[in-house]
């Protein structure tokens, strides 16, 4: 069985190393700290959480809960340790970050099939299977090696993300569908018109907004072609009206007039279940974004699936370069996971590490591998990295918007957003079970966590009587709606 070399001992690399080792594959895990440190890390431990200590919502029914629950059922090491190191965090899964990284480091170091090397991997090994999981602060040497294989145009070092809003929370009475100058489809964009008073209020709020404090390693000399909206506002009252909020070529069909300013919403997918705010990348704190963006007509009660961000972030153009196994199409012995493949968030990095580890183990054993079904959060996440539009690829968190829509639902469920989420989670967990069984031929055992939950009808939340056997809140037909938000 082929050995595997992993570059990067973060969340993705650590999870991948464990999945390989428990499947009998020898692993060399290369972590350059402490020989060479980074501006973001404070210790030499594996799986160090460099920002928040929160792994997001642990409320049954939330999209982030579904991804965590799938990982728990699949035997994820890091999700197990996160549960053991949990601290009070309200509805979120928060962890003691020192205990967490210490436990991950100790567990991996003690496994007989894992060799931990404290050295920088500067180029791809000439032989064997390789996983690159070095994250947004990939060293210059390895980044150059990656560029030589992928092409410089397919490796980004700067991340500008516009906010995404849930389509169901847009007030359609305040917006109108239209494309600029009538080009393209008539409903390609939703347009939020602002009169002069509304624009002035929005402008002043944006000028005084609280921004995110930059990390020491982030250079805030923004690209002129990708300026944050708050920076545009500081350059003058009309700058936004000649930039992302320009109203030219757009007439409100309700009065035939051109608005004073317009915010355009562009559909994120063919079913238009979510929209991004065109040109609204920003460096504001998330609560500030919610407060200010809800001043835009039509977004008064908007729920945001993703907030805008601008930060340093090394990642590949995954849809162009990677297949559904997270392998480089041009070099199928090299895999990429974590933030480097274009996902955002701790749990998403763990998830891609898990998937890469499983895929590598199957390839090392010369066994076929099929990614998780699209109905699962795991499957939808890796489907996004391999099938998103390569011309406009942006890193993403897990959200229900990435999962396929449900078909042929009873009307009572189809019209109830919370009930739909419950059904979607139930279907995802059922599909996950089928996929896990298919990964375990020839008497190989299923992950213990999955066996326990399946055979006992329990989940990580099963002690709560109000939940069903899947760990989800009971459906609205059984009791009042209680599904957590995304």
| Proportion of helical residues | 25-40%
Which regions are unreliable across 5 or more consecutive residues at pLDDT < 50?
Answer: 216-223, 454-469, 473-486
* Annotated CATH architecture of the largest domain: 3-Layer(bba) Sandwich
- The tally of beta strands, per DSSP, is 16
Q: Numbering strands along the chain, what is their spatial order in the largest sheet?
A: 10-11-12-13-9-14
Annotated CATH homologous superfamily of the largest domain: FAD/NAD(P)-binding domain
Number of domains: 2
Overall structural class, as computed from helix and strand content, comes to alpha/beta
Looking at the structure, what is the overall shape? globular
- The CATH class designation of the largest domain is Alpha Beta
* Mean of residue pLDDT values: 84
From the 3D structure, determine the CATH topology of the largest domain.
FAD/NAD(P)-binding domain
| Count of DSSP-assigned helices | 14
Task: Report the biggest beta sheet as strand number plus sense, adding barrel if it closes.
Answer: 6 strands, antiparallel
Task: Set out the fold topology.
Elements: E1 4-7, H1 11-21, E2 27-30, E3 54-57, H2 63-73, H3 77-84, E4 86-87, E5 92-95, H4 97-110, E6 114-117, E7 129-132, H5 140-150, E8 155-161, E9 164-166, E10 176-177, E11 189-194, H6 196-207, H7 229-234, E12 261-267, E13 274-277, H8 286-293, E14 304-306, E15 309-316, H9 318-321, E16 334-336, H10 346-364, H11 377-387, H12 411-414, H13 417-438, H14 448-456
Parallel strand pairs: 1-2, 1-7, 2-6, 7-16
Antiparallel strand pairs: 3-5, 4-5, 8-15, 9-13, 9-14, 10-11, 11-12, 12-13
Helix pairs in contact: 1-10, 2-10, 2-13
């Amino acid at each position: 069985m082929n050995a595997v070399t992993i570059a990067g001992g973060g969340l993705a690399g650590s999870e991948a190393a464990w999945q390989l080792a428990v499947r009998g594959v020898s692993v060399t895990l290369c972590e350059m700290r402490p020989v060479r440190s980074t501006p973001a890390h404070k210790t030499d431990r594996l799986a160090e959480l460099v920002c928040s200590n929160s792994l997001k919502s642990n409320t049954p029914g939330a999209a982030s809960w579904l991804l965590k629950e799938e990982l728990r059922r699949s035997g994820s090491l890091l999700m197990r340790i996160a549960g053991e190191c949990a601290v009070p965090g309200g509805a979120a899964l928060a962890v003691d970050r020192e205990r967490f990284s210490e436990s991950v480091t100790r567990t991996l170091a003690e496994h007989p099939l894992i060799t931990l090397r404290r050295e920088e991997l500067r180029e791809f090994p000439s032989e064997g299977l390789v996983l690159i999981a070095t994250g947004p602060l990939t060293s210059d040497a390895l980044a150059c090696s990656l560029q030589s294989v992928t092409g410089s145009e397919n490796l980004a070092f700067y991340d500008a993300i516009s906010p995404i809003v849930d389509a169901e929370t847009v007030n359609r009475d305040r917006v109108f569908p239209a494309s600029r100058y009538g080009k393209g489809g008539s409903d390609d964009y939703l347009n939020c018109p602002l009169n002069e008073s509304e624009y002035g209020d929005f402008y002043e709020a944006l000028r005084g907004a609280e921004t995110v404090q930059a990390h020491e390693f982030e250079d805030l000399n923004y690209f002129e072609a990708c300026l944050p909206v708050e920076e545009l506002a500081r350059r003058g009252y009309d700058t936004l009206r000649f930039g992302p909020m320009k109203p030219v070529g757009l007439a409100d069909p309700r009065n035939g007039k051109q608005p004073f300013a317009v915010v355009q919403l562009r559909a994120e997918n063919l079913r238009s279940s979510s929209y991004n705010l065109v040109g609204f990348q920003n460096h504001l704190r998330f609560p500030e974004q919610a407060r200010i963006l809800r001043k835009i007509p039509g977004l008064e009660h908007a729920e945001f699936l993703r907030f805008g961000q601008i930060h340093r972030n090394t990642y590949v153009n995954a849809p162009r370069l990677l297949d559904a196994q997270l392998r480089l199409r041009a070099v199928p012995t090299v895999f990429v996971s974590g933030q480097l493949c274009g996902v955002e968030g701790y749990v998403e990095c763990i998830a891609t590490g898990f998937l890469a580890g499983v895929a590598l183990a199957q390839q090392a054993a010369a066994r076929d591998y099929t990614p998780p079904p699209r109905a699962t959060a795991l499957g939808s996440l890796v489907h996004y990295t391999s099938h998103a539009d390569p011309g406009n690829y942006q890193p993403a968190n897990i959200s229900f918007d990435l999962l396929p829509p449900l078909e042929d639902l009873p009307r009572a469920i189809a019209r109830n957003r919370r009930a739909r989420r419950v059904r979607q989670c139930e279907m995802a967990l059922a599909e996950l079970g089928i996929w896990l069984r298919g990964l375990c031929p020839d008497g190989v055992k299923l992950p213990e966590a999955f066996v326990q939950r399946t055979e006992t009808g329990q989940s990580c939340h099963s002690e709560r009587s109000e939940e069903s056997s899947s760990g989800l809140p009971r459906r609205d037909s059984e009791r009042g709606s209680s599904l957590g938000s995304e």
